[in-house]
TrEMBL record:
One of its GO terms (biological process) is regulation of DNA-templated transcription. SMART domains: BTAD, Trans_reg_C. This is OmpR/PhoB-type domain-containing protein. Residues 1-102 form the OmpR/PhoB-type domain. Keywords: DNA-binding, Membrane, Transcription, Transcription regulation, Transmembrane, Transmembrane helix. The keyword Ion transport does not apply. It comes from Paractinoplanes toevensis.
Length: 517
C-alpha cells in the first residue's frame, strides 16, 4: 500500500489518496500548507509566502519553524518510508522554501488537460468526443475548490478554478446544442445558471435551447428576467451574444447554431463615469473582439443617500445611544474589521459617559432642579459624541461610494477582462475614461512613474516593479508584490482596496519566475 502512487485533489476539500484511500492530513493549518504547495506544484515556494497565505495578517512569531513542523508532518504522511529528517524527493527543501513534486497527480491539472484536449477535439470536428472529454473533466469536481480554506491566496485560486469550471460547462452546453440535445440540456442549464448566475454564456445557451424546442415565449421571458437581473446586480445590459439570440427569437428565425455566435465570452455593457454632457458614447475596440461597447452615462448607487441618512439618524435620534450601530453595519457590508473597532470605541465612550455622568452622578444633580457644572459637562460630552459619530458616519458613507464603484469594477473585470482594459479600469493615469472604477490601480498596466505618483510609493520601488513585470511576466494578485520581494506585506495591505491585476493582452515571451538558481 505504501508504494502506491499518490493522488492529490483540490477540486473540493483538499485530499490525498493512496490506492483510493484518503490519508489523514492532520490539523487544518497543515492542510493549508499542503494546499499552498499544491497550487504551485513543481515550483519552489518561499517560506514567507507560505506563512502569508496560511496565516494572513496574524502570522506566528516563529513562522518558519511552524511551517517546518507542518512540512515534517506532511512528509510522515506522504512519504513514510523515508527517515524523518531526510528531505526526500516528493516534498523537498529548497534554498528559501519548499517544493512539492506532484506532477501528473493533481486533479486540477487533469481538469485543465481535459479542457485542452476537448478544445483540440472540437477543432478537429469531433464534437461527441469533445463533449465526453469535458464531462469527464467536470466529473473531477467534488464541490467548491479548496473548500474550507480562507485567505486571499486561496480565494484567488478558488475564483480562477471556478471560472475555468464555468467555461467548461459553457463549452459543453454549446456542443450539446450542436448535437441536437436541446431537450436534455434545459434542466441541466437551469441548475448551472443557479450555480453561476453571472455567466452570460450559459444563459445564451438556455435561450437557444428553449427556442430550438419551440418554447419561444419562455425564451423571451427568460431574456427579460436576465436583463433585469444584470441591471439590478451589476448595472449591466446583456451582451452582444444574448442580444443577438434575442433578436433571432423575436424574428422567429430558424434556431441559430452555436457556431454562428462568437466563441469568446460576451460581456455586459457597463455604465460610463459621469461626463459634462450625459450622452451615450461608443468605445471602438479591436475588430476581433466584436462590436463597440455602448456606454450610457454612469449612475452612482442610490443607496448612498439612504446610508448617509442612516449614519446621521443613528446617533441623533437616539441621543448617542446608537452612535456605534452604523459602524457595525459598515464593517459587515464592506468586510472592514477596523469599522468594528470604531464601533467599539463609540460604544465604550457612551457606556463610560452614561455610568459616570448618569448612574454615579457624583454631584447629586439628578435630585436637584438646579443645572450644575456636572450637568453642563454631561450635555457637552453627549452632544460631542452625537455630532462626532454622526459626522464620522457621514464621511464613511460618502467614501463608500468609491468602495461600491470599485466592487462593481472588480466584478466587471472578473467577468470581462478584455473589455475592462478597453474602458480603462485600473488606469487613473488616462486623461479620459469611460468607466468610473473608484480609483483602482492596475499593477499590470501602469508605468513606474505613474504608479509612484498615484500610489504614493517611492519612485525607485515602482520602477523596479515595472522592470520586474516586463522581465518575469504579469502579476496575478497584489500579494505577488510580496512573494517577488517588491513590497512588504504592510504596504500591500494598505493599498489592497485599490489594487487590481488585470491579465494583459498578447505580449512577448517573458523570463520564468522564480528565476533559475
Amino acid at each position: 500500500m505504501i508504494g502506491t502512487a499518490l493522488r492529490f485533489e483540490i477540486l473540493g476539500e483538499v485530499r490525498v489518496l493512496r490506492g483510493g484511500v484518503a490519508l489523514p492530513l492532520g490539523p487544518a493549518k497543515q492542510q493549508a500548507v499542503l494546499a499552498v504547495l499544491l497550487l504551485q506544484a513543481g515550483r519552489p515556494v518561499p517560506t514567507h509566502q507560505i506563512v502569508d497565505a496560511v496565516w494572513g495578517d496574524d502570522p506566528p512569531e516563529n513562522g518558519a519553524n511552524v511551517v517546518q513542523k507542518y512540512v515534517a508532518g506532511l512528509r510522515r504522511v506522504l512519504d513514510p518510508e523515508r527517515a524523518p529528517r531526510t528531505p526526500g524527493e516528493l516534498l523537498a527543501l529548497t534554498g528559501s522554501g519548499y517544493v512539492l513534486r506532484a506532477e501528473g497527480a493533481v486533479d486540477a491539472d487533469d481538469f485543465q488537460a481535459a479542457l485542452t484536449r476537448a478544445e483540440a477535439e472540437q477543432a478537429a470536428g469531433s464534437a461527441a468526443e469533445a463533449s465526453a472529454t469535458l464531462r469527464a473533466g467536470l466529473a473531477l469536481w467534488r464541490g467548491e475548490a479548496l473548500a474550507g480554506l480562507t485567505g486571499p491566496v486561496f480565494d484567488a485560486a478558488r475564483t480562477r478554478l471556478a471560472d475555468a469550471r464555468a467555461t467548461a460547462w459553457e463549452r459543453w452546453a454549446e456542443l450539446g446544442l450542436a448535437q441536437g440535445r436541446a431537450d436534455a440540456l434545459i434542466p441541466e442549464l437551469a441548475r448551472l445558471i443557479e450555480e453561476f448566475p453571472l455567466r452570460e454564456g450559459l444563459r445564451v445557451q438556455q435561450m437557444l435551447a428553449l427556442h430550438r424546442v419551440g418554447r419561444q415565449a419562455e425564451a423571451l421571458a427568460f431574456y427579460q428576467n436576465t436583463r433585469e437581473f444584470f441591471l439590478d446586480e451589476v448595472g449591466a445590459e446583456p451582451g452582444e451574444r444574448m442580444r443577438a439570440a434575442h433578436l433571432t427569437i423575436l424574428r422567429n428565425d430558424a434556431p441559430i447554431s452555436p457556431a454562428v455566435i462568437p466563441a469568446q465570452r460576451s460581456e455586459p455593457t457597463y455604465r460610463a463615469a459621469p461626463t459634462p454632457v450625459p450622452m451615450p458614447v461608443s468605445i471602438p475596440i479591436h475588430p476581433a473582439a466584436g462590436p463597440p461597447i455602448h456606454l450610457p452615462p454612469a449612475r452612482r448607487s442610490n443607496n448612498i443617500a439612504l446610508e448617509i441618512i442612516f449614519a446621521l439618524a443613528a446617533p441623533l435620534l437616539t441621543c448617542s445611544v446608537a452612535s456605534w450601530v452604523y459602524f457595525v453595519y459598515a464593517g459587515i457590508r464592506r468586510r472592514q474589521w477596523w469599522q468594528f473597532v470604531v464601533a467599539a470605541v463609540y460604544f465604550v465612550l457612551f457606556a463610560v459617559g452614561f455610568v459616570v455622568l448618569v448612574l454615579i452622578d457624583p454631584s447629586g444633580s439628578l435630585d436637584s432642579d438646579e443645572v450644575t457644572t456636572s450637568d453642563n459637562i454631561g450635555m457637552l460630552f453627549f452632544g460631542s459624541l452625537v455630532l462626532g459619530s454622526a459626522l464620522h458616519g457621514v464621511i464613511v458613507a460618502v467614501r463608500s461610494d468609491g468602495f461600491q464603484l470599485r466592487e462593481q469594477a472588480r466584478q466587471f473585470a472578473a467577468f470581462a477582462p478584455d473589455r475592462a482594459r478597453e474602458v480603462g479600469i485600473g488606469r487613473p493615469d488616462l486623461p479620459m475614461r469611460m468607466f468610473d472604477d473608484g480609483g483602482l490601480i492596475d499593477l499590470n498596466q501602469l508605468s513606474g512613474p505613474d504608479l509612484a505618483r498615484i500610489a504614493r510609493l517611492p519612485l525607485a520601488q515602482c520602477l523596479e516593479i515595472e522592470r520586474h513585470r516586463q522581465t518575469y511576466g504579469p502579476f496575478y494578485r497584489p500579494e505577488d508584490l510580496v512573494s517577488r520581494g517588491l513590497a512588504d506585506a504592510r504596504t500591500v495591505r494598505k493599498l489592497a482596496a485599490r489594487l487590481i491585476c488585470l491579465p494583459p493582452g498578447p505580449a512577448p515571451a517573458m523570463a520564468a519566475w522564480p528565476p533559475p538558481r
